[in-house]
Specification:
The structure is a homodimer. Chain A has 6 helices and 3 strands. By secondary structure, chain A is mainly alpha-helical. Chain A has a 3-stranded antiparallel β-sheet. In chain A, helix 1 (about 5-25) packs across helix 5. Chain A binds a DNA duplex through helix 4.
DNA sequence: CTCCTATAGTCACCCAAGTTGACCATAGGA
DNA sequence: TCCTATGGTCAACTTGGGTGACTATAGGAG
């Protein structure tokens, strides 16, 4: 029996965690919420992004990013505002509702990781995060690579 | 700066590895190859599966699995044969071409994991696999959970 | 044996979320 | 003042899933 490829384990792991996250968010009343939303909100936590920023870190076309932002704005998670220094651009500000999901998502991720810690121990969970960050940054010029809704 | 959620790291990791795999398979002449193909072939390595088996471990409807198999058969990676004991079912046998991609995919995954080992060391790569298998099995009744093309 | 229900598979149609290509407005340097 | 690059959007299309309806066979209850 050959080793299970890491790629497969990662696909399973992310699928499992994202599914659990969305089950719980749904249970807390956050509906019409696509999986990608949480990642966009997490990314815009530290200040507003532009549509192009989103296209880049989601590794999608700017058209697709624009549609994603449409959906997020319509569901009241983001607000498009004019960019103060560039009349072409728009800044995507997280809304109050957006902040609430974001907090819920972070809390639920912490809970899910705590469940993992009960199985393999907190040290090994930390090691997973540390090792993945290290290897991903090392192979992508010191920064984390883009994330994708699909492969 | 809060911790990067593991879910995000897993999504990035699987995206990166699967993308690299397909770049290299493409370079070796395997075209018209969807990401899901490699997982189906790996799963059918130890003997033919039925369409329902595929639907189950890919966590998709049997209709979608049927279309996936259509595509794989059309691209000559699988062959549908009648089931010897159940006239309703068909067994999906891996073809010669299928075996070749499978070997290529396994070899490339080994190479990619070796690149990771050069960054974080072989021990920590092994630890990743061990820990993920342990936690995934523990939370899914002793078996690995299904894999999904998207989340 | 005869039903009756469960299961394997497929067909037709639909939908979500991406892509490509064309386009407009503004930025910003030569 | 152009001329090119960039941020964003609209429209049309593609892909890969889902849903619902259906057929054929399996397999147990009576």
């Amino acid at each position: 029996m050959a080793k299970v490829p890491l790629a497969r384990l990662f696909a399973m792991s992310s699928y499992v965690l994202v599914s659990r996250l969305h089950e719980r968010l749904e249970a807390e009343g956050f509906r019409e919420l696509r999986p990608a939303f949480a990642f966009v909100l997490l990314a815009s936590r530290d200040g507003p992004l532009t549509g192009n920023d989103i296209a880049r870190f989601m590794d999608m076309t700017k058209q697709a990013a624009s549609k994603l932002v449409d959906a997020m704005e319509q569901a009241n998670y983001l607000v498009r505002k004019p960019h103060p220094e560039d009349a072409r651009a728009k800044l995507l500000h997280i809304s109050a509702k957006g902040k609430r999901v974001l907090e819920a998502a972070e809390r639920i991720y912490v809970e899910l990781e705590a469940e993992w810690a009960r199985v393999i121990g907190a040290a090994r969970v930390s090691a997973l995060r540390r090792d993945l960050i290290e290897v991903l940054e090392a192979t992508h010029g010191g920064k984390l690579p883009p994330i994708r809704p699909a492969w």
